[in-house]
Amino acid sequence: MWQSRLVDASKGQPVDGNGCGGSQKGEIAKLDEMRRIDRSGRWDYDEVDVTDFLIAQFKPGDIVDAFDSDQNRFVTAELLQTPAPDDAKNHLEMKWQVVCKKTWKRFETKHLRHGTDFFEKLLGVFGKDSLEKIVQDATKLKVKSIYESRLQNGMLSLAVDFDLTCIQERHQLRDAVLGDDLVVSLNDALEKRGFTEQLAVDNTVFFQQYAASLLTFSQLTDHQTEKLKELSRYLHEDVHLSAPAGGGKTFLAVRHAMNKLRSSSKGKILFISPNRPLCFHFVHWLLMHARSSLPKVSRNKLLQRLVFMHAPYDSFTRAQIAADSYIVLEELKAMPDDLVLAIFDEAHAIFRTNQGIFQEVHAQRKLVLSDRSQSFLLENKYPEMRRVHLTEVVRSTKRLVLGANAFQLQDEPITCLGTTGPPLKSFIFESPKGVDHDFFTQFADHTVKALWFIMCTHPSIRLDRHVALLVPDEEFYRRFRFHLEDRLEAAFAPSYNIHLISFEDSLRFLPETAHQDRKRDELILDWDSNATGLEILFVVCIGFDVEIAGELDNFTRARLYHAITRAQLQAIVVDRLVQGGWLAYLTTLKLREMTFRLGDAESEINEDAALRIVMDSWW
Q: pTM higher than 0.70, yes or no?
């Protein structure tokens, strides 16, 4: 089941409570000060009591949205009585007498706003069957039901439940919402029926649910089902599972781990990753799956059976969930002696720097997960064990997969279940040599252009935790952040309150609390190694290119491939023009406005180009 929310876009902001905001109070204080200083009278102003304004806005008999403190939510109600005009003057709370239209309960409330019968009228004129058909025609997806509902902030909305059975349908709905197909079809139908109101999708709610659905989705593709059965046949062996980026290897590892936890009430699972953020992501994924597979087990009790280890691989931790849904890692004194399974996620990154860790970890069984393209030249460093290969990409779009092909080394064919998606977008600029200040300022300027591009292409979406700005390393991050913060302030304030956070910060809280009532847009800014194993809707790859020469060839190629494949929907490249670099070819490309055909695009890809460059320098 999938739920999307449609809200009445013609209504203004709600009137919640009374009085002036902080900035308004500051303005009034300044006016009072200037009136005292300047006796000429030029600073005189009229004072209007807000009580008079609010009482004039609401009359007995009006249909309003009233906050019921007993239910901790807004309800549709009829206004019975307004506050007495003298209440505010006597410093009494303004309370409104209302009656709930659904339960006929009478109560007092301090918070109300203008109500609407729009959705009731909409359902009455169209009927649910007709509305369902409009939505189905726009999305090409099966609709289970449409009904009146409320958003988390209490605003009335129309909820649509979709019956989505596979990952492709989730991607299809995402693209329909981003492309405005759904809203355009509904508003065209409204206009033909004489409605002057307009509908809009609440994208904040939609993409919050979209992200959660990717964690909770349990339906395997046929290919994944086959590979999970293969893993189950090797329960008494160590297994190496390899896949292209976005192939779902961690997803299968979660399923495999859940099978282990269900089959026995004893023993622990060790999850090893090259960074802390991936540990938090694994916690999210496991807990979301446990809701359906282990519903009677509490979160902290389940987490007691998990142990974590990350670079520099010198300690063990366990996770706990604090009262505010905050994930806390607590260090353990030693490696547990009852490990039934050890999972080495992103093993190509782990074994590149620490081959001995495989033998140092003592567990009944070990599961190694690797990206084949990232580990092509590391094959002789992996321990001998049973091999299982995933060759199907489920996370990314077809254009992302083909764009990343320019930097991958694997030569085996892969398939992609994603939608077509938008093309790779690049902002390549020429930079003067030897001037570091101008260098990072230019990067910041073009990064802002990339953000404006996302906002203009998808004007109804919030950037909040849907965009990751990836840079090559920590040194670049430290020097770039200062310039970027200045440019963000100049370009977006005060209309947008943008705050930069890391991947680790973004994953510290469980998904159900990550977006609640946040008044600012949080953009992820981090360096590439901290994004290992993670994914996000939009990725902006900043400053990765270098001139192709010597040992850096494979390292730079791998980072470019990795950064691009962190995107679920679109990757954007921001870089200076490097003659003889990996990205120089982008300056010669021009987008052809034509229908995307996978076969034609594949025929234009030189699959051996990256391999030839790397192998020539390697040998």
A: yes
